[in-house]
Amino acid sequence: MTRLLRDTFEEWADEAEVPADLADRALRRRAPWRPIGAALLVGAMIAAVALFVTWRADPVVVPADGVQLPVRPSPAPTDVHTDTENVPPAKLIAAGTMAVSAYYQYSAEPIENGLRRIRYTWSLYDPRTGGYERTPYAWVDVAPGLQVAAVVEGDVMGKRVGVLDMNTRQMLAWYELEHDVAAVAWSPDGTRILATAYSEYPDLQESQGEEFGPRMAPSPRTGYYVIDVPAGTTDYHELAPLPTMGSSLALPRTTERRLEGNMRQDLGWSLDGTLIWSPTINRPDRVWYTIDGEEAEAPAGQHYVGHSRHSALSPDGRLLLGEDGLPTKITDIATGEVAGRQRVLQLHAWAGDDEVIALGCAGKCGNEFKNGLVLVSVDGSRVTQLAANSNSQADGAWRAVLTPR
């Protein structure tokens, strides 16, 4: 959903004035949401009840003191795991240095004032079974090494963040916060959690004729927490959101047009964990800040896959992942020459120096929304199907979270 919206926004993000046909262009490019029927809502309620009954995480409140985190496997495994039979996957998907540590599915539910709310349902890798287990949490992120997960307790956001031992399914710590947070992200070294705070839930949709689209309102982001897990500390920093498409229409023409298309503006870490970033629809696609929230220059020598936390630069520093498109391309960073083209839709993350986890398409790629994860070589000659092809716009579609192993 967000990738399709960004495609539209990027067409005009650098223009001096907002195009007169902006709303029409956004509607044309946005994939429609299917209405949520009563039966589906009832089914979701029943599933939610069953989920809270069956989830096995330790319910006991653990004090948020310093925590000794499990040791990350060394050397990390690099074998390939596939699940091409189940949608969503029932068995671990992994290749090279990366694994699908979790995945989420989303659905829309009506709320007051004619709005709809997007709800995320998270499933987390379970090392004990080699599969995935559905969780009751509002948001989930897995630390590098797949040993611990950070979770947000609550309906769609909340004021408690927990650290879950993935091997034992026991809570190592709970952190009580003063502000609601709607997302968490582990630092690259797996010791700190970045939790983005909001004054209200950010994933809302409003009616746009017969369909629903993003709410044209300012982002409710208020700031963020940096949780140091070994030290047991939680530091809050205020950080104003970037203007959204709706709120930017009233900005003076002299205002620098660094915009974000969504009310949700979750923060992420730099590759070395020294800075944090906020997403934008402009190029470059992020604004950088120090850990304390002061605006900063982009870190030198770092390259990112668009709108993600993954490095676009190969582990050996030779090759650079290209932008979305069919075919995609990978270039030699020293010469700028094309090192290979791949018959895939998107390049997601390096699995090693010569292979990439990507979004492949079914058959002859006649439908871009019929796709699945693949492992592809730089020259495009070798493609291994990692996950089953499925309709990424259908109800219950799943989205993978890739984490270093």
What does this structure look like?
- The strands form five sheets. Strands 1, 2, 3, 4, 10, 11 and 26 form a seven-stranded antiparallel beta sheet that branches.
- The chain is mainly β.
- It is globular, with a radius of gyration of 21 Å.
- The chain contains four helices and 26 strands.
- It has one domain.
Number of domains: 1
**Biggest beta sheet summary:** 7 strands, antiparallel
Shape: globular
Output mean pLDDT: 86
* E-strand count: 26
Fraction of residues in helices?
Answer: under 10%
Proportion of strand residues: 35-45%
**Alpha-beta classification:** mainly beta
**Helix and strand sequence:** HHHEEEEEEEEEEEEEHEEEEEEEEEEEEE
Radius of gyration computed on alpha carbons: 21 Å
Return residue spans where pLDDT drops below 50 for at least 5 consecutive residues: 1-50, 56-61
What's the helix count? 4
Distance between the termini: 27 Å
InterPro entries: 6-blade_b-propeller_TolB-like, Quino_amine_DH_bsu
Protein name: WD40 repeat domain-containing protein
Keywords: Membrane, Transmembrane, Transmembrane helix
Transmembrane segments: 35-55
